[in-house]
Design goal:
It is built from 14 helices and 14 strands. It is an alpha/beta fold. The chain has 2 domains: about 210 residues, Rossmann fold (3-Layer(aba) Sandwich), CATH 3.40.50; about 160 residues, Rossmann fold. The strands form 2 sheets. It has an 8-stranded mixed sheet, sandwiched between helices. The chain has a 6-stranded parallel sheet with strand order 11-10-9-12-13-14, with helices on both faces. Strand 12, helix 10 and strand 13 form a beta-alpha-beta unit. It is globular. The model has no long low-confidence stretch (mean pLDDT about 95).
Length: about 375
């Protein structure tokens, strides 16, 4: 008999930001291969007159959406606590619906600690429902200063430490969570790649070598400005390559830098792409380039390997666990001299990498079934 698992997402993909938490959804799809999975989410809707529920059957899980009207008193100091309370009520309504109409969960799977961790803690106390936490968030890392170095709240630690187990997408994230005071049973659980979308395809022919960068272009994390400085330097030595940039948001200062430094024929901005479109970019690339200050995992490296494309990236997050000498090149964060040397090397040696071996590695480690089996083993150990 399959385990009955209720999933909740702290990060929910939206029409405005379709990549938010999309890697969490892939974990749910993987888990749903071997368990009875239900996803509960709450959405605000400008057109909704009252609360309503929508239930849909996806291939690997049941999707339960609670739609609530947008609410505003006109007083900002009141709106925040009132909307938090309405979200709390909506999630409880959804939980009661699932208990009555689908199942009483054996286990709650919380994806990212906040804000939904507060619901997980409440349900554990009220219904004796154990929960497992899968963490992707970089706030535990000393390089991510959004909360200050290691300034993790007591509430966050309480949620982490009350989980039946914690999974992280890299050993690096686990180590830093422990450094912040999280004391729990840890499991390393990599992200999932859709190997049917991100797969080798016929490569187009180009006059110049093709480098690909995929990111949000958030410079405090992705250090795209460092990439541009190194590209500018290499461009004075050779003109046999193009850097294609696929990105979520427009960043005018980067586009201005490219114009001012006469790099418009070398650095090409392509904007946001669908996964299928992105797969074409991976396949046309000779290698992928990242120069991040920090990562917890790196879906970009994983997707590139699944397409048979090598990568040049920094030694952070799960990247050292994914990239060996036969899959790409690793450089230290912020070391622009090392990046320049590695770029020059790869521009002349990218063809030495075996695309099928890269693909085989991705299939063995990041395929839906491979990760799904890992998740099911964790569930079994906790429940039985």
């Amino acid at each position: 008999m399959k385990n009955k698992i209720l999933h909740v997402l702290s990060w929910i993909p939206t029409a405005e930001c379709p990549t938010a938490g999309n890697f969490c959804l892939r974990h749910i799809e993987a888990a749903g291969l071997f368990s009875h999975a239900v996803l509960l989410t709450v959405h605000r809707d400008l057109t909704a007159k009252k609360r309503k529920i929508e239930v849909a059957e996806n291939e690997n899980y049941t999707d339960v959406k609670i739609i609530i009207p947008c609410f505003s008193t006109g007083f900002s100091f009141l709106d925040k606590p009132l909307n938090k309370y309405r979200l709390f009520k909506a999630y409880n309504f959804g939980f009661q619906y699932i208990k009555k109409n689908i199942f009483m969960p054996d286990l709650l799977h919380l994806h990212v600690v906040l804000p939904l961790g507060k619901m997980a803690l409440y349900w554990k106390k009220k219904y004796k429902l154990p929960y497992i936490l899968t963490e992707h968030w970089s706030i535990y890392l000393p390089e991510d200063m959004r909360l200050g170095k290691n300034k993790i709240s007591k509430k966050l630690l309480q949620i982490c430490n009350n989980a039946a187990a914690v999974t992280t997408v890299s050993a690096y994230l686990q180590q830093n969570m422990q450094n912040c005071g999280v004391k729990n049973h840890f499991h390393i659980l990599p992200n999932v790649v859709d190997t049917q979308i991100f797969r080798p395809q016929e490569k187009q022919s180009f006059d110049k070598k093709q480098i690909l960068h995929v990111s949000t272009l958030t410079d405090s994390e992705k250090n795209f400005s460092g990439i541009l400085r190194v590209i500018k330097k290499i461009r004075t030595q050779r003109n046999d390559f193009v850097l294609n940039v696929v990105h979520d948001e427009q960043v005018p200062e980067f586009e201005q830098y490219v114009k001012e430094n006469n790099l418009s024929d070398t650095v090409i901005f392509h904007g946001r792409k669908t996964e299928k479109e992105l797969s074409v970019f991976y396949n046309n690339a000779d290698f992928v380039l990242l120069f991040s200050h920090f990562e917890t995992f790196s879906c970009v490296v994983m997707e590139a390997l699944s397409c048979g494309t090598p990568a040049l990236a920094t030694c952070t997050g799960a990247i050292p666990e994914m990239l060996s000498e036969d899959r790409g090149v690793i450089v230290p964060p912020r070391d622009e001299t090392a990046l320049e040397e590695a770029l020059l090397y790869l521009l002349d040696n990218f063809s030495r990498y075996d695309a099928q071996k890269l693909r085989d590695y991705a299939l063995a480690h990041f395929d839906l079934k491979a990760v799904g089996r890992q998740i099911e083993r964790i569930y079994e150990n906790l429940l039985h």
